[in-house]
Amino acid sequence: MTATTVPATSAPGTTVPEAPVLEAVDVTKHFAVRSAVGARSVVRAVEGGTLALHRGRVVALVGESGSGKTTLARLLAGFYAPTSGEIRLEGTPVRRRRGRVERGYHRDVQLIFQDPFGSLNPLHRVRHNLERPLRLHHAVRGRAELDRRVRELLERVALTPVEQYVDKFPHELSGGQRQRVVIARALAVEPKVLLGDEPISMLDVSIRLEMLNLLDRLRSEDGLALLYITHDIASARYLCDDIVVMYAGEMVEGGPKEQVIAAPQHPYTRLLVESSPDPGRGARDREALFDADADSLGEPPSLIDPPAGCRFHPRCPFAMDVCRTQAPPRTDLGGGRWARCWLHPEGRAGELDRPGTDAGTDAGPVAEHATDRTTQENQ
Amino acid sequence: MSAVRSGLLRGWKVRVGLSVIVFFVLLALLGPWLTAAVPGLDPRANDLTAIGQPPSAQHWLGTTQFGQDVLAQTIEGARGSLFVGFLSAVIGTALAILVGLPAGYFGGRTDSWLNFLSNLFIVMPVLPLILIVAGYMQGTGLWVIALIIGFFGWSGGARTIRAQAMSVSNRDFVLAMRTLGEPHHRLLFHEVLPHLTGWIAAMFLQGVIGGVMAEAGLAFLGISDSGAISWGTMIQAAQQQSAVLRGMWWWFVPPGLCIALVATAATLVNFGVDELSNPKLRTVRRSVVRRTRDRAGRASRADRADGVVGETRVGSDA
After folding, report:
1. Which residues on A lie below 8 Å from B108 (Cβ)?
2. Which of A220, A279, A339, B134 is 20–30 Å from A118 (CA)?
3. Is the CB of A120 inside 8 Å of chain B's CB atoms?
């Protein structure tokens, strides 16, 4: 945990030749659900998830609620066994006993939960939360040594003066302070990978930036590999090196952040980017692009019965016939960028760059279709 | 924790309930010493000069058909009844935790088996079973009675614990501590169980009431240690000697009243435990209302002294 562990290349936008620390290779997670009458069905929460986390780099996973981001994070954290595919930690597939990963796994991979109010036991003091991982993973015994390590951890997450916080109960702390305790607890393990499941979405806007800076410092000073899950493009842009976009359980686009945000190569990414508030843009631009106001843009599809072909086609202004029948292949666009969209193999990728006046011609029936679908699902 | 304790003792219900329970526990503990120290207060001595006497200066609560002092018997009975009540509650609660906690925490196949077990005990006809078991184990002492009551009385509690454990186990902090590498036993007993203390305390008190009542009921049916004295055996003896027909109310009213008192006291303490875990149930305390009103009155008086016109009323007159 010294500065020497920082890899030479951590500048954003460059590809890292180093082997990934944690990797998901084509993982799929299906959940069996049973309705009240006993009919079984399968929720396809994640399909074909492929993701690699490198030392000292931050990957953002963005997408709507229900797109499978959290499921993927929990797969990586070892809470679920993937239905198919493989999680690899430093190249070796993760072994499991009766569906649960072995304890050694969590020495390297830690998860930060979305809700700092729920992820600390209200009955335990801050001290307890930090001492347990120290005892478990580093066999730290002895009062003096424990105190020293706890103090160190709290200082690292800037909860100072330490005396003020160490004996507090969670309910005596604010949301941001709690999330710091949660991060300190994860750091106590000295993991190689930190998975942040929307770590700032429950925090006050005023302290979000502080939290992002804290995560950034952990990445650059300690060389942690970070997965940052969010639906907020702006914070992803601030913190991350790479962005992977998920839609309805599938990954649709990925690449270095600036390029993905500046020139989306998938219509869904474009929708996401356009949806994030930007004072410099006119309010009607997005409506012009998608030829519909926000309400009629539809909802993410049901994951029990996802649309055939490309899962985005019911909402896509560029949808073609092939989109409705066949899932698009992954197209590598160079420079670490890739997208899963029929526009690329069909040679229509250029249309994505133009502000969507021409898309409006065939968007009419599509938008109608999307509305149909939504009403069907609501029934 | 001290805050919890002082909060628990603040309500009048808990205070009354606890003092009644403490009174009876002291009676049970000091009973033998008391009856031995005071002459004429031997629960087993037969005073042939006073048979079936109503309360008098000699025998404060009268005597039985066998010339035994009812007061002495009631004191001695507290020992037997409370012993059975507490022991059966301990056994029942322990079994409920042992079955319910892993069922709720682990889920899956463990849950199916343990839940099957508790369902089995719920649908079992407990009373006939106890009759058979008690008949089989001849010379039943109070220990055996308590064991039987505890052993057949845990299933409902196990269901409650299971449901609560299930809900607590799925909360993020348990998952978070598991990610830290906490072993199952730590998670069970340090993360999940402390959240169930309210339920367990309530269950235990319920178990004490149930145990005392069940002992009385079993004794009434003739299943008890013939040598031991408890409130149940007193009522049974009174019934056998047709105390009701002879109008000997002093024989069965004291033990009956004691059972009712212990049950009421335990229920009152339970209310307090409930209020601790659910603040909405808390009734407004008079002292708080009075203090608020006083403060408001003082404030308005001070305002008037300062010559402030049109002051607003502070506080509530609720």
Report:
1. none
2. A220
3. yes
Nearest to B182 among A119, A132, A188 (CB): A132
Q: Which residues of A touch B195 (CB under 8 A)?
A: 123
Residue B217 in contact with residue B232, Cβ under 8 Å? yes
Pairwise CB contact (< 8 Å): B179 & A182: no
Q: Which domains does chain B have, with CATH numbers?
A: 2-283 (1.10.3720.10), 286-318 (no CATH)
As given in the structure block, the two tokens for residue A186 are: 């994860």
Q: Which of A264-273, A281-290, B167-176, B275-284 shows the lowest per-residue confidence on average (mean pLDDT)?
A: A281-290
Nearest to B180 among A113, A118, A133 (CB): A133
Token representation of residue B171: 């909360």
**Measured in Å, how far apart are chain B's first and last C-alpha atoms?**
31
Counting one residue from chain A and one from chain B, the pairs whose CB atoms sit within 8 A come to 51
Reduce the DSSP state of residue B54 to 3 states and report it: coil
Quick one: pLDDT at residue B113? 93
Q: Which of B173, B181, B194 sits opposite A106 (nearest CB)?
A: B181
Inform me whether the pLDDT recorded for A2 exceeds 50: no
β-bridge mates for residue A193, sequence order: A109, A225
Task: Give the 3-state DSSP-derived string for A46-64, with helices as H, strands as E and coil as C.
Answer: EEEEEEEECCCCEEEEECC
More confidently predicted of B1 and A328: A328
Residue in chain B lying closest to A119 (CA):
B173
Smallest Cβ–Cβ distance between B180 and the set A79, A123, A185 belongs to: A185
What are the residue boundaries of the structural domains of chain A, listed by start? 19-240, 263-378
- The DSSP code sequence of A112-144 is E-S-TTTSS-TTS-HHHHHHHHHHHHH---SHH
Q: Is A85 helix (H, G, I), strand (E, B) or coil?
A: strand
Q: Hey, what CATH class is A19-240 in?
A: alpha beta
Question: Measured between beta carbons, which residues in chain A are less than 8 angstroms from residue B173?
Answer: 118-122
Least confident of A373-377, B76-80, B128-132: A373-377
Query: A141-188 pLDDT, tens per residue?
Result: 888 989 999 998 998 888 888 888 988 888 888 888 898 899 899 888
- Contact across the interface for B173 and A182, Cβ inside 8 Å: no
Q: What is the mean pLDDT of residues B200-209?
A: 89
